[in-house]
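Wed. Picked up where I left off yesterday with FixH family protein. The coffee machine is broken again, so keeping this brief.
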Amino acid sequence: MKVELTISGNNHPAIKAAVSQNGEPVNAADEVLFEWWRSGEKKHQKVEIKEGKNGIYTLKTHDLKPGKYVVISHVTARGMHTMPKKEFSVK
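Structure written out below (tokens, as returned):
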């Protein structure tokens, strides 16, 4: 299973996990959970995304304070689990 994690947008970024296996999109993952937090803070936000379209699971964020953030996507599908991590900034 492959998960490509991308973040787009500045003030209200959209966090996307593109989930595929053997080059085919995975639309029925067992779990896609986004966990994110502002660098230096202990409080983490977690949101589970139930549905994907063409293997893409999207979280639209809002009300994020300016600063650097870290996001981990917890993805379980077809007996596999992966947790890609990425950093992003909000201006």
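Quick read: Residues 2-90 form a domain with the Immunoglobulin-like fold (CATH 2.60.40.10).
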